[in-house]
Amino acid sequence: MEKVVYDSTNAAGVNASPNIVSVGKPPWSHRTHSGKLERLILQLGAGNGRFSEVTGIPRSIGCIGNNSFLLRREPLSPERVRELIRDFKELGGRELWLTNYDRIEYLTSIASYAAEIGVPEVYAVIKLEDLGLIHPVEDVHFIAELEYSEENIKRLEAHGWLHGALVMATAKQYDELRSLSTAFPGEIYVDVLYPGSARKLDFNVIEMKRVINASSEEYHDCLSGTVAITAEGYALPCPLLRNYIVADVKEVRLKKVLRKRRLKEFWRLTKDKIEGCSNCPFKYVCHDCRALEYQATGDVYGLEYCPLEL
């Protein structure tokens, strides 16, 4: 994936400041979208991450992290998972994100398979405590997932082969991270944790959500080009929008999922279609996480985290 530095001040000094490439938004949010399939986020299990769908997932980049979900039926077979990956490649998809694993062996085997058949970009998100159970795999980009602490950032330095790190942090901890010295060379995605209500925000949310995307007048900066598939086979516009099922891949192929009107509507869900955003002068430079808003309001078109609601 093309690297984009969030704050140029972090580039001063080689292997001194963290290589922060995205803050509070997925690393593809800046990319121009064309309305075609770009990425597949494939969940491999129920997961046992820190946050769960029962208690809430307040993560700004929780879509590519490991969370805990309730499976509504039997998960997809390994054969069906591999078939989906083959379909994804044949349909021109580029980024495969593998998350929410229950067994590390299954994650690495699926990642290896995807790399072997030539998926252009394969990302596997591994919890920090599991790093000792894996080894580098050719053409697989491993990303460590961790909660921010100086000790955890230090632990990354022993794994310089990692592609990057997904760091869960409060806004205050993000400020600490920016000033931290580290020899870890990988990309860092800062997964900012949001409070349950806008009344508890303690950071400049407008600045945090600022994004430059040339296609934002036509496509959603985050959802466009994205298909998520749960471990049990439900296709979603986002891994965290569990109640917005687009299709069932136990019954249909990925090609048919892409034809679903509901998916296309999410891809084209611009700020012009959200009441309270449509008249805002900043609507095209404001990152939009529908999952966070849905969690806070119960409405996928909700608008909790905005001090400028018009």
Description:
This protein has 310 residues and is an alpha/beta fold. The protein has a single domain, classed as TIM Barrel, CATH 3.20.20. Helices cover 21% and strands 16% of the residues. The chain has eight helices and ten strands. Strands 1-7-6-5-4-3-2-8-9-10 form a ten-stranded mixed sheet. The longest helix has 13 residues, at 78-90.
Which strand order spans the largest sheet, edge to edge or round the barrel? 1-7-6-5-4-3-2-8-9-10
Q: Nearest-angstrom radius of gyration?
A: 18 Å
Q: How much helical structure, as a percent, in the residues?
A: 10-25%
Average residue-wise pLDDT = 94
Give the count of helical stretches: 8
Query: What is the count of structural domains?
Result: 1
Give helix and strand order, one letter per element, not per position: EEHEHEEHEHEHEEEHHH
What is the 3D form? globular
How many β strands by DSSP?
A: 10
**SS class:** alpha/beta
Question: How can the largest sheet be summarized?
Answer: 10 strands, mixed
Strand content: 15-25%
CATH class: Alpha Beta
The CATH topology assignment is: TIM Barrel
* Architecture (CATH level 2) name: Alpha-Beta Barrel
* Unreliable runs: 2-13
Task: For this entry, give a set of tags.
single chain; 310 residues; alpha/beta; TIM Barrel; Radical_SAM_PqqE_MftC-like; Aldolase_TIM
List the helices and strands and how they pair.
Blueprint: E1 19-23, E2 39-43, H1 78-90, E3 95-99, H2 104-116, E4 121-127, E5 140-147, H3 150-156, E6 164-169, H4 171-178, E7 187-192, H5 205-208, E8 226-229, E9 234-236, E10 247-248, H6 254-257, H7 261-267, H8 290-297
Parallel strand pairs: 1-7, 2-3, 2-8, 3-4, 4-5, 5-6, 6-7
Antiparallel strand pairs: 8-9, 9-10
InterPro entries: 4Fe4S-binding_SPASM_dom (IPR023885), Aldolase_TIM (IPR013785), Radical_SAM_PqqE_MftC-like (IPR050377), rSAM_sf (IPR058240)
Domain 4Fe4S-binding SPASM: 223-281
Protein name: Fe-S oxidoreductase
